[in-house]
């Protein structure tokens, strides 16, 4: 593996000083305050005059009012913001984030992504893993992985275009029966999301009347249907099934 066109084996120290890392599991010191944790990481990276940078990061992450609070007393979202601040104290060029929003409440998750968007303006490259494909939609490039294999690698838009099919979303009665009928008897690829079914077809115009007829013959009423733009979640499920 090369970073900045240099081997991570032979240039370990140089590369360490140019990258930041945020682990999925909170790994800072719970008995230290926000300020003390940041100071500790500044010392690790040899950042001498760190106080101005620390204050910038506290403002940036909205942690300034809580700077004296110990890390163990922070909420999940605040812990992730603190961990991010620590990973940025030495002004890295690339940061690696391991599922940074897993287990974080929706409001904190949204705030975290606002922070990441702002980091791009500082020309910091962000490499992250996430189980949330709606988050992956925000990225410039995406690698869809399953069991260690890359199933797709491109921009989100290009990956979705490669499906080459249309997606119709229906809401109907007896949704589980409809799901089984469409999958097993009609033979279309079908994905269920809550009270909705997404069906992947070659052409909605030619295929949907057949689907509608089969459901009607089995006393299943379609309450509404519409064509939807394929999401990365649609594509990921499709590729996983295709890979077997």
Number-wise, the strands total: 11
CATH class label of the largest domain: Alpha Beta
Domains counted in the coordinates: how many? 2
Number of helices: 10
Strand content: 15-25%
Backbone CA Rg: 23 Å
Q: What kind of sheet is the major sheet?
A: 4 strands, antiparallel
Query: How widely separated are the two ends?
Result: 29 Å
CATH second-level architecture of the largest domain: 3-Layer(aba) Sandwich
Mean pLDDT: 92
**What is the overall silhouette?**
elongated
Task: Outline the secondary-structure elements.
Blueprint lengths: L1 E2 L2 E2 L4 H5 L2 E4 L11 H11 L6 H10 L15 H13 L5 E5 L7 H15 L4 E5 L3 H4 L5 E5 L2 E6 L1 H6 L4 E7 L2 H12 L2 E5 L2 E6 L2 H14 L4 E7 L3 H12 L1
Parallel strand pairs: 3-4, 4-5
Antiparallel strand pairs: 1-2, 6-7, 8-10, 8-11, 9-10
Helix pairs in contact: 2-4
Brief descriptors of the model:
elongated; 10 helices; Alpha-Beta Plaits; alpha+beta; Rossmann fold; four-stranded antiparallel beta sheet; three-stranded parallel beta sheet; 244 residues
